[in-house]
Task: inverse folding
């Protein structure tokens, strides 16, 4: 059975004391996880150690960096390598978030290199894809997302993609309060799985967790996560409130 994941993306929010309090408050909510369910906290770089120390003895709760360099080390001022992340026991790294694609001009080829260096160092990528509004309005979203997957992931072999984590985040639904309907989410997730099955076969495609991101809240999580090809969510704003995110965690499919 593939993993069901409630992932938080705190983005560029919180001070260190706020990040520690949010982690403690979340752990104190007493959410419960089945063996195939995970919680992943996408933490700003300076607080990764603090949060990792707090969750390290919690089964199925992990931290994620929100980005990594495509280089292993060297004269790259301001960058953070996967080797550094590994040295502080970071489990996941978010790669290709639309905000980084837009503001930092990250393209599919660069993201392929980031995926490779993360996998080579044992850090699990959460690979983000998703279309902007004008692509959705012209009904070209399937081809758009397919190209993102092909150009950043299809060089991987079946072994590397097995159990992989992808987040579908339609850009028009991020931080806008405008969520994709559960039908729109299911349609795209089924399309992504079909594209993966076309390249790697049904069996491998069935192992890949596809998370939905874009204005997920406690109020809509059960319906979205209930779709057959939706394996949880990548949550921005609502993950900054412990009780709200705990309710989202409890909405994961069993
Ligand atoms: P919101 O949940 O705030 O819409 O953000 C989604 C997102 O970008 C998660 O990575």
Result:
């Amino acid at each position: 059975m593939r993993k069901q994941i409630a992932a938080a993306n705190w983005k560029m929010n919180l001070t260190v004391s706020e990040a520690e309090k949010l982690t403690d408050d979340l752990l104190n909510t007493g959410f419960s996880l089945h063996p195939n369910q995970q919680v992943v906290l996408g933490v700003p770089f300076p607080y990764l150690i603090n949060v990792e120390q707090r969750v390290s003895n919690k089964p199925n709760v992990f931290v994620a960096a929100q980005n990594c360099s495509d280089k292993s080390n060297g004269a790259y001022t301001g960058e953070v390598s996967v080797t550094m992340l590994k040295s502080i026991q970071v489990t996941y790294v978010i790669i290709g978030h639309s905000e980084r694609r837009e503001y930092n001009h990250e393209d599919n080829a660069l993201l392929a290199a980031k995926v490779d260096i993360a996998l080579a160092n044992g850090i699990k990528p959460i690979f983000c894809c998703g279309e902007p509004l004008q692509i959705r309005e012209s009904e070209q979203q399937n081809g758009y997302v397919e190209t993102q997957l092909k150009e950043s992931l299809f060089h991987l072999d079946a072994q590397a993609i097995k159990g992989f984590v992808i987040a579908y985040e339609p850009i028009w639904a991020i931080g806008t309060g405008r969520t994709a309907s559960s039908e729109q989410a299911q349609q795209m997730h089924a399309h992504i799985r079909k594209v993966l099955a076309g390249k790697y076969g049904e069996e491998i495609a069935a192992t890949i967790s596809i998370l939905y991101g874009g204005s997920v809240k406690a109020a809509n999580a059960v319906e979205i996560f209930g779709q057959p090809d939706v394996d949880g969510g990548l949550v921005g704003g609502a993950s900054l409130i412990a009780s709200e995110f705990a309710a989202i965690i409890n909405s994961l499919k069993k």
Summary: The CA atoms of residues 133 and 172 lie 5 Å apart. The chain has a mean pLDDT of 97.
